Amino acid sequence: MRVGGHTSCVALSTDGGVPRLLLDAGTGIRRVPALLDGGPFRGTIVLTHLHWDHVQGLPFFPAGDRDDAEVALLLPAQGDALEVLARGMGPPHFPITPDGLRGSWTFGGIEPGDHEIEGFHVTAAEVPHKGGRTFGYRVEHAGASLAYLPDHGPKGCGEGPDGLGARHPAALTLAGDVDVLVHGAQFTLAEQAMAADFGHATVDYAVALATEAGARRLVLFHHAPGRTDDQVEAIAATLSDAPMPVTVAAELLSLDL
Ligand SMILES: [Zn+2]
Ligand SMILES: [Zn+2]
């Protein structure tokens, strides 16, 4: 009721404008039209990977499914982007393929490295996860920075100094001295074995990574869908001795950087 149940989507805008860059297209994308003053979405959607919870909002995004929408969709490069997306969004799974959405849509791959997207400097890096190529992103603009690592299984790269998972170069680069690190927080330390099995991290790892990278604020994101608001907030309360402020991500939480 407070945190919300939609899946991953983060909207970024500059100078008080409407959002032009979206990170992931989970069902949280249904909240984006309210930020667009009744207008269409004109911008870029960058996906971390293609798991359902990161793409299933795509066909249910009214601001992107209208004649005056202009959308560029980028996913971690892997063959023909539209064809790969259409394996999950297309008959018999869904009545139309992504190119059946109204407006002007383009579909492409993004490679690791530095990119200029919608006026933002975007750094893409491949991170360990399970079941498909997965990127994390760092977004910078006018001296402000945000790192986005929703699905990140660091144990795929080793145990790390404390058994929580490797602080591998990609994660440290993306999160290095960042203003805000938005990190997956689906699993607690007690659920560590399941986290590793599912290719995710624990909240304790998120704090350890934020600490080592020098992140100035940690936002716990991608909550376990079965948890209550109180349970999510109780997890955050156990992190009160973290060296940076820890915030529980909730739908429509707005951060001014
Ligand atoms: Zn995933
Ligand atoms: Zn996910």
For the structure shown, list the relevant keywords:
globular; single chain; binds zinc ion; alpha/beta; 257 residues; 6 helices; 5-stranded mixed β-sheet; 12 strands
Mean pLDDT metric: 97
How many strand segments?
12
Assembly category:
single chain
Q: Which stretches of 5+ consecutive residues score pLDDT under 50?
A: none
Strand residue content: 15-25%
User: How many angstroms separate the termini?
Assistant: 26 Å
Estimate percent helicity: 10-25%
The secondary structure category is alpha/beta
- General form: globular
The string of secondary-structure elements, in order, is EEEHEHEEEEEHEHHEHE
Report the total helices.
6
Biggest sheet statistics: 7 strands, mixed
Radius of gyration: 17 Å
The small-molecule ligands in this entry are: zinc ion
Strand order of the largest sheet: 6-7-8-9-10-11-12
Description:
There is one protein chain. This protein is of the alpha/beta class and 257 residues long. The protein has 6 helices and 12 strands. It has helices at 52-55, 81-86, 169-175, 192-198, 203-213, 229-237, and strands at 10-12, 21-23, 42-46, 70-76, 104-110, 113-117, 120-126, 135-141, 144-149, 180-184, 218-221, 246-248. The strands form 2 sheets. It has a 7-stranded mixed sheet, with helices on one face. Helix 2 links the parallel strand 4 and strand 5 (104-110). The longest helix has 11 residues, at 203-213. The two termini are 26 Å apart. One zinc ion is lined by residues 8, 51, 53-54, 150-151, 222.
